[in-house]
Amino acid sequence: MPLIIHQREKCIGCNYCVEIAPEQWRMSKKDGKSVLLGSVNKKGFWSLKISDIQAEANEKAALSCPVKVIQVR
Amino acid sequence: MSRRAELLAPAGGFDSLMAAIQGGADAVYFGVEQLNMRARATMNFTTEDLPKIAAIANEHKIKTYLTLNTTVYDHDLALVKRILQSAKDAGITAVIASDQAVIASARSIDFTVHISTQVNITNIETIKFYALFADVMVLSRELSLRQMKAICDAIEQEQIKGPSGALIRIEVFAHGALCMAISGKCYLSLHTHNASANRGACVQNCRRRYSVTDLEEGHELEIDNEYIMSAKDLCTLPFLDQLLQTGVLVMKIEGRGKGADYVKTVTQCYREAIDAYYSGCFDQEQVASWMERLESVFNRGFWSGYYLGQHLGEWTDAPGSKATQKKIYIGKGNHYYPKIGIAEFDIEAYPLQVGDKVMITGPTTGVVETVIESLHVNDGGAADIAQKGDRCAFPLPVPVRNSDKLYKIVNV
């Protein structure tokens, strides 16, 4: 199963991941950074297992992230 | 002249903040969190740093301006309010804003507003409009000295005042990187890398070399200077007297992404030049010596920007800095013996020799430069050279800390 990893602290809140993969991402109105829905935080790295079908959109989100804090593997 | 111009220096981190103070700045500007034009910089402060920044500034009697000048989306609004409230509570002097949401939020809590260059102010009517909200306004970088003077004169004549009741003060960029787009409003980085300059994420691809290809026949055209979009750096020092005569009252140095050594050197040169102007001894002989110092730190070559009016854009012919000196990392601070004035360092990268010119930087130390006159290595007593892995000590009049870094300064 593909895994998304989000290094949230470095997010600059550009909103592209939400536009590209809205099923997994939301903008936090609290701190203006994106949130990987349902993910687990381990030392600042937020991770979430997704299905193969969901991988494509998230790979695009990772590619479009200007500060490269999203990884899909 | 009743009012003296203020020198405003960049603080990308605590080391640059100390360097700006050591250089003689009257005020510093800095960003917190992600809503500023250097969001990509790793050394941005956080909201928790605000009280410490204000405390250091108060101790040294300088003003503090918070940059909060990116494009702002709905999801940023709560963060904007939180940052502004924290800054006001901490005693930060003012916020540099461009988005109307930020301006309105700041005014609603009676926090002083400065209008960012991102707003692109180019005429007196715009000044009057923003005078409802702001006390200081940064002019567009594309205006000429003549245009600046007309605006400053009109403020005086028409007595245009901000919310504080004082006359509007005009701020301009005095030194540092210029971008090819009008006052930073550029789409290039967003277009190629999805990284918006207007969210502080510019990848600076204008600084690269480009060629032009004929898509029909595939011919690649030769261009004299391949760095066709990379402007040289602005340097107003040679005509600083003319710039001050326009009536501008805040001189800003660009460079929150640059090192503490850069901040200290540039701030010092402009401090001396401004003081020389007010004491009536600003002359070309001193300009030559200041220029030599400015050329020793990061630069893409200098030009006068659009201020003198007659030039078209000048483009750099190098990918990065043309600095005449560079710094090489040597090692980190270990201990300081205050009674005998000896600093101890661990050598981690390159050897250090007697006669080397060195620089020490750190969040409390700022920037200190010295020449190694004697050296003790490990427990072996006096030596001429310390190698990687060695612990060495040399006399230094100011304390060093564990967080300090030691660099060797060499000519390029």
From TrEMBL, chain A:
Pfam families: Fer4_15 (PF13459). One of its GO terms (molecular function) is iron-sulfur cluster binding. Residues 1-31 form the 4Fe-4S ferredoxin-type domain. SUPFAM superfamilies: 4Fe-4S ferredoxins (SSF54862). It comes from the Bacteria. Keywords: Electron transport, Iron, Iron-sulfur, Metal-binding, Transport. This is Ferredoxin.
UniProtKB/TrEMBL annotation, chain B:
Keywords: Hydrolase, Protease. One of its GO terms (biological process) is proteolysis. GO terms for molecular function: peptidase activity. The keyword Repeat does not apply. InterPro entries: Peptidase_U32 (IPR001539), RNA/ubiquinone_mod_enzymes (IPR051454). It comes from the Bacteria. It holds the Pfam family Peptidase_U32. PANTHER family: PEPTIDASE U32 FAMILY, TRNA HYDROXYLATION PROTEIN P. Belongs to the peptidase U32 family. This is U32 family peptidase. It comes from Paraflavisolibacter caeni.
